[in-house]
Amino acid sequence: xxxxxxLAVSRHRHSRPPTERVLFVGESDxxxxxxxxxxxxxxxxxxxxGWLSEHGDSRDxxxxxxxxxxxxxxxxxxxxxxxxxxxxGVFESVVEAAMVAGCKVFTVRSRATLMSSRPQKVRAGDVRxxxxxxxxxxxxxxxxxxxxxxxxxxxxxxxxxxxxIATAALIKFDTPGPVVFKQERxxxxxxxxxxWKFRTMTDGADAxxxxxxxxxxxxxxxxxxxxxxxxxxxxxxxLRKWSxxxxxxxxxxxxxxxxxxxxxxxxxxxxxxxxxxxxTRLAVKPGVTGLWQVKGRSSIVDFEEVVELxxxxxxxxxxxxxxxxxxxxxPAVFRRTxxx
Length: 340
Hints:
Layout: H1 2-14, E1 20-26, H2 31-41, E2 46-52, E3 61-63, H3 68-74, E4 79-83, H4 88-100, E5 104-107, E6 120-124, E7 127-132, H5 139-174, E8 180-186, E9 192-198, H6 234-241, H7 249-255, E10 259-261, E11 287-289, H8 291-294, H9 303-316, H10 319-335
């Protein structure tokens, strides 16, 4: 029965154009790499894009592994396969980039431990490989997280509806301008979306950001924080103190742009100043709250410390961790530490 089913699936896949674009990384001339290329490229519905290699010894050479970010962003890669002996730093950089880009990642080398990922054994013909994923990136876990987000955010929106209506009225009567402020942010795998917030600043405040850059207390444009920001309205100051301005993001969660818990989304312009290890923040959906919020909020002014907290969340995710962060957010809001 299994053989009959496999034959039927194989014929179906052969009748369709390639649907999985595969990028290979490593020593293309090694025996294990040739076997991996033959086994994986021979599967129905796959298309080999070529190799990233340190030696440039492949007919389908695409560049050095350090170019992985460029290739992933321009070639619509679905799967990345690492093969042969690869330097530890190169291996980690490529796997992290591929995971952040939302690709499936396989390695056919003997040892694979990376960023608390839990390798899963898979087979491609007679080639054995390990599939690497972040805990929250697996199909079952990702579905569970999404189901929890959708149910919890819907209930929260219903319960918070009187507060939402009252807040909207206060903003409308306080200063001219829209009640809800929509701002483009970067989310999962680098996708840009519009994040919703209650407006807490005067209309057109974004145009004044460069003029106030010298007041940024963090000294880092990627972490823009100004105590007593002159653009903040009277109602806005209260909303920020109690984090009520973030409530409309529950709608972003319902839409699937965000999760209740995750790294905070950042501006697309900040990507130019990111180092490779910063992109791990894109490996999961951004959150309304996260480890940064419950461990200090704006009182943490070191961007690397923020990134480290985000990496800790991505690499150790579990539903229990999400529940703990949500519960810890309540006292964090009431403490109002670092909220401005």
